[in-house]
Amino acid sequence: MQEFMPQAIEFAQKHTFLTIAWFAVLFMTLFTFFKSATQKYRVITNPEAVRLMNDEEAVVIDLRPIDEFQRGHIIGSVNLLPTEIKNQNVGKIEHHKEKPLIIVDVNGVSSATSAELLTKQGFEKVYVLKDGLTAWSGACLLYTSPSPRDPKTSR
């Protein structure tokens, strides 16, 4: 150990940029680990979402605008905008506080903010679908609502 410290200091002095980059990577790794350990919601994959929907009657909350929601959505999902969640206007799902909620958006990026807000509003089991509806449809799991004017569906 006595030989290591002088060598480490010498290395750090000669390679300042590399040392700073190493500490930045270490800091970001620790920050990510602690943030994920303390958040009140979990990020889940498609199979976990399907299991929650089938076994625990999870409610899927789709955060996309209504026109996108109407073009296609997960069966049984509820359309709720992030602004409604932010303004605590969650009457559509208020009676589902004890059920698991799966929050989905287009690509899984903006769901975390809404998930965090829902946990603060008293929802106990909140999950975010990893990679959102992009991954869901990529796994051929997306239900597309037929258009009411679609001649194939009108009989």
Explain what you see.
The chain is α/β, with parallel strands linked by helices. 46% of the residues lie in helices and 12% in strands. It has seven helices and five strands; from the N terminus they run ααβαβαβαβαβα. The chain has helices at residues 4-14, 16-38, 46-55, 66-71, 82-86, 111-120, 132-138; strands spanning 42-44, 59-62, 78-79, 100-104, 125-129. A five-stranded parallel sheet has the order 1-5-4-2-3. The longest helix has 23 residues, at 16-38. The radius of gyration is 22 Å and the shape is elongated. The model is unreliable at 149-155 (pLDDT under 50).
Summarize this, please?
The protein has 7 helices and 5 strands, in the order H-H-E-H-E-H-E-H-E-H-E-H.
What order do the helices and strands come in, and which of them pair?
Layout: H1 4-14, H2 16-38, E1 42-44, H3 46-55, E2 59-62, H4 66-71, E3 78-79, H5 82-86, E4 100-104, H6 111-120, E5 125-129, H7 132-138
Parallel strand pairs: 1-5, 2-3, 2-4, 4-5
What is the number of helices? 7
Rg over CA atoms, rounded to whole Å, is: 22 Å
Shape: elongated
Low-confidence stretches: 149-155
Q: Per DSSP, what share of the residues sits in E-state strands of 2 or more residues?
A: 5-15%
Output the structural class: alpha/beta
Mean pLDDT: 87
Give a quick account of the main beta sheet: strands, pairing sense, barrel closure: 5 strands, parallel
Strand order in the sheet with the most strands: 1-5-4-2-3
Distance between the termini: 82 Å
Helical residues, percent: 40-55%
Order of helices and strands: HHEHEHEHEHEH
Number of strands: 5
